[in-house]
Structures are given as C-alpha cells and as structure tokens.
Amino acid sequence: MLRKSEEQQEAELALLSTEDDSASNTDLDDLEANRKDEPITNANTEPEYQTPTTVKFIWLTCYFGFSMALTIYNKLILGSFKAPWLLTCLHTSFSALGTFAMLKMGYFKLSKLGRKEHLILVAFSVLFTTNIAMSNLSLSLVSLAFFQIIRNTVPLFTVLIYRLWFSRTYATGTYLSLIPIVAGAGMCTAGDYHYSLIGLIVTISGVVLAAVKTVTTNRLMTGSLALPSMELLFRMAPLAAVQSLIFGIVAGELPILSQAMSERTADGSVLRTMCTVAFILGNGLLALVLNIASFQTNKIAGALTITVAGNLKQAITLALGIIVFGDFAINLLNGMGIFLVLAGCAFFSKVELDSKRRAASSS
C-alpha cells in the first residue's frame, strides 16, 4: 500500500508538470515533410513571424495566465482526489464537449480529411496520452529534482527537431537566449538527484517525446494540413479522453475516486455535494479554456516559444509555491535560477521581435 501511495503521488506531480502541455501528436513525418518538390521553408515565412505582435502577446498572456491557474487548481483537486488519469480524462472530455458546442454554434467548420489524415490525428491523440504516461513512468524511476532538470531541456530538443527535420534556422540570439532559460530553470529545481541508467533513458525519451508533441501540434496547424486550432482540439480530445480513462481504470483510480467522493458527501449535505461537483466541473471548464489558448498560442507564437513559456511557468510556479503554499524555503541558487529564466525570456522576446521586424521589412 505504501508503494502504491508513492506511485500515486509521483503520478500527481507528473500531471502538474505536463498538463499544459496541455497543450499539446503524430510523428514528425507530417504531410508537409513529405512534399519533397517544395523548397525548404525559411523561418521568416512561418506564421509566428506573420502574426501581429499584439495578437501574439494577448494569446501568450491568456495561455500563461490560464496555465498558472490550472496548475494551482490541479494541486487543489489532486489534494482531495488522487486520480491524475481521471483528471486528464475530465480535461479532455470538457475539451471535446466544449469544441463540439463551438462547432454547432458556427465558430469553426470541419475540414474534409482522408484516411491518412484521420490516422495522423489518431496518432496525435496517442502521442498526447503517451507523453503523460512517460512522465509518470519517469517519476517512478528518478527523483523529482532530476526529472525536472531534464524536463527543462525541452526547448533544446525542440530546436534540434526543427534543425534536423525541417532544416529551419533561428537567429544567433535565439540560441544564446536558451542558455539562461534552460540553465536557470535547472537551478530553480536543483535538489537531490537520484537516477538509474534505465531511469535516465526513460526520462530523456520522455523529453524528446514532449518536444515531438509540441512541434507536431504546431505543424498540424501550420503545415500543409493547416487545421484550425479548435478543429484540431475537437478531433483529438475525444480520443485522448478514452485513452486517459483506460489508463485510469488500469491504474485503479475509479475506486479511489469513488471513496473520495463518498468521504466528501458522507454527511448527506446537498450543498456540500453541489459544491464538490461544481469544484470538479470548474476544473474541467478551465482546462477547456486553457487547451484552446494553448493550441492557438502554439499556432501563432510557435512551438519553441511555447516550450520557453513552459520553463518560465516553472520558475513562476516555484515563486508562487513559496509565497502561496509555503512549500519550501528559497535559497540563493533558486533565486538566481528564477532571475536567469526571467532575463533569458526577456532576451528571447527581444530577439523574436527583432526577427519579426526584419521579416516585415523584407516583405
């Protein structure tokens, strides 16, 4: 029972660190990559360099704000209901229902897809849930501090994927800005590192998978398939919900959820029951809003920007954890890490703005 409890706690931590990713896939052999007759796309022709800065800033702000809110909300939910897979099922179910309602209200229309495109979207949903599963497995094999410091390298793998698969280059300043962002995030999570060889391999594989997921999400919306963000979420969410439910059943989370609900409604209070249900449904609604913001932000700001925002979120979450929850005391290394992440993100933003101005002037 003790071992099972530890695994549940590790799964909860994995969900908090990967939910946004919420965000966010099929393998990188997407439709655009197969079009060999077309010239290599220059970075400055990417949608992220064509979108007005104000629009990108608004979506990034929404994504960051909703992401922070859901992280805190998840922490509160998992404190009472220790069922991370069922929570993921709740999130994706709300995303499916919410986007279905938007479809019926005319906010977007479905594209005509062939068999190959449908298979790509099935693979996309599998990659989404597999990414969470790999995170849970990693945490069962390595310490949380080691997991986090390896996870912070997702931006580096994102750049590597773009370089090797799409032959895309970035400004020198972009590469340089990743150094303080990754190093600073590592300093934020510095702690007692414990890992085995198999744990190291699984954790690195999970990081590569997370980068692949983020890049592929972007390519499905900006490549030759060019699906609207809400349509992509609409097509992916039901599949991911079913897969998450299966994982939850296998992990034995249904009895845990049932027991937790029984304990909270044991006094027979109708008001308490209604508050509990509203508390859970509110989490699902926030997840829907975050997923819409996450997919749209990925489309117009780019996969690399999303991963950088993830490292920034980790630094801010650390600060909030100290201020709001009093989880642990900050030390000099943590403080320097937060500063480096903030400085690196500021430098990254400046470089990206300069790249956009150059793209606008050359067009």
TrEMBL record:
Function: Involved in the import of GDP-mannose from the cytoplasm into the Golgi lumen.
Annotated stretches, region: Disordered: 1-47
Transmembrane stretches, start-end: 57-73, 85-107, 119-139, 145-162, 169-187, 193-212, 232-251, 271-293, 300-322, 328-348
Record's bilayer topology term: Multi-pass membrane protein
Protein name stated in the entry: Sugar phosphate transporter domain-containing protein
Keyword RNA-binding: no
GO cellular component terms, semicolon-separated: endoplasmic reticulum membrane
Domain of life of the native organism: Eukaryota
Residue ranges of domain Sugar phosphate transporter in the record: 59-349
Keyword Endoplasmic reticulum (UniProt): yes
Similarity annotation: Belongs to the TPT transporter family. SLC35D subfamily.
Major subcellular location class: endoplasmic reticulum
Keywords from the named record: Endoplasmic reticulum, Membrane, Transmembrane, Transmembrane helix
Pfam families on file: TPT (PF03151)
Amino acid composition bias (Acidic residues), ranges on this chain: 18-31
Oligomer and partners: Homooligomer.
Localization terms from the record: Endoplasmic reticulum membrane
